[in-house]
From TrEMBL:
Protein name (Swiss-Prot/TrEMBL): DUF998 domain-containing protein
UniProt keyword Membrane present: yes
Segments passing through the bilayer: 38-56, 68-88, 100-118, 138-159, 175-194, 206-224
Keywords attached to this entry: Membrane, Transmembrane, Transmembrane helix
Length: 243
């Protein structure tokens, strides 16, 4: 009698037990948080810089994102770049190539943060100036270029890989990843072209808008990777693409 009762209770508990695939893996959740954090920081950075500078009395749009380093919003610029760098370095991908790419991008983000661009002589919002240094400026632009080139590589080649059956959502995500990568490259390539031939005196702040576009493209790619949108629909008994 006792054995029969025990078996009945055990069977009921087994039926009531939730299947393993309905429970979120804490590691998966942490990856999503990191991806979304990187995405939000990238998208919000240009808007945050303009808003912070405006609230603190600077009504002049700076020639580029990097020139906010010399304004009252400089701490926000450095802080966000360092946060993105830390997130990228702490992010662990599915292969050594993933780790190398994100680590390298993180190091470049620190380079952009701590090797500021040249002074903006025409800015009324600049609080201070550094002695002119071609080496520092060159390292800054080199770090920024390598940062976006690496981020575009990650978005175009690494984010689009999958393990298992590709879902409809995965195909759509891959299109977004590649579009964001192409936009990042396009915006960054246009920066020196605009600075030299189209808007050499920064009258229209084209560099700022191009850099903002690159940041928004970068952030969008990581938000999609973090499954803010286009999340795979669960399929019972079938393998789905691994994002």
């Amino acid at each position: 009698m006792k054995n029969t009762l025990y078996l009945a209770i055990n069977q009921n508990l087994t039926i009531m037990k939730l299947p393993d695939n309905t429970r979120e893996n804490p590691e998966v959740i942490s990856y999503r948080v990191i991806r979304r954090s990187i995405g939000f920081l990238g998208i919000l950075l240009p808007f945050g810089l303009v808003a912070m500078a405006y609230l603190l009395g600077c009504r002049q749009l700076q020639p580029s994102i990097s020139h906010y380093y010399y304004t009252m919003a400089g701490s926000l610029l450095v802080g966000v770049l360092c946060a993105v760098g830390l997130f990228l370095i702490s992010y662990k991908g599915f292969s050594p190539l993933d780790d190398f790419a994100t680590n390298f991008a993180g190091i470049c983000a620190f380079g952009v943060a701590f090797l500021p661009t040249e002074n903006s002589d025409g800015s009324v919002c600049a609080l201070f100036k550094y002695p002119d240094s071609g080496l520092r400026s060159g390292l800054h632009y080199g770090s920024a270029s390598l940062l976006f080139l690496t981020l575009a590589f990650i978005s175009f080649f690494l984010f689009t890989r999958s393990k298992g059956e590709k879902t409809k959502e995965k195909y759509t995500r891959n299109v977004i990843y590649r579009v964001c990568a192409v936009l990042m490259l396009l915006f960054i390539v246009m920066v020196p072209i605009c600075s030299k031939w189209i808007d050499p005196n920064d009258k229209h702040q084209l560099t700022f808008y191009l850099e903002a576009g690159a940041l928004i493209s970068f952030g969008t790619s990581w938000l999609v990777k973090g499954e803010m949108v286009l999340k795979d629909k669960p399929k019972v008994g079938n393998a789905t693409a691994k994002t």
